[in-house]
Each structure stands twice: as C-alpha cells, then as structure tokens.
Amino acid sequence: MKAEIHPDYHTIKVVMTDGTEYLTRSTYGKDGDTLNLDIDSKSHPAWTGGTQQLLDRGGRVSRFQKKFSGFLKKD
Known about the structure:
Elements: E1 10-15, E2 21-26, E3 34-36, H1 45-48, H2 60-68
Parallel strand pairs: 1-3
Antiparallel strand pairs: 1-2
C-alpha cells in the first residue's frame, strides 16, 4: 500500500436508537468519537416488518399477477 493516502482507521463508539452501545473500528471522526444512529436494524420498518401498505392501482403488481397467475398451478 502507498503511504499517506489512506484515511485514519481508529476505534469509535456507536450508539443505537435503543441506547445500546458498542465499539468498532471506522474512518468516521477521530479516535474515541461517538456515532449516534438515527435509524438502525432494531427500529427501521425494513428490518422489523413494518406496516407498509402496497398501493397499486392497476399498475406493475396487477399486470405481473395477471400475467403469471397460472404459472405454478398444477392441475
């Protein structure tokens, strides 16, 4: 590796949205800095199975279901 071109890699503290903390190595900030997360896997609907509704008014989902509705049917 070339010298003097890579960022400083050091230890920081990460604070999750529920208050739990852990130490990790990162290029974020300076050695000993704290990274407070606004969104993490414990609170974001993408990981928690949130109540997002799929709205489709005759669009892609409907066309897909119509086109492939009988694809896996075995008679």
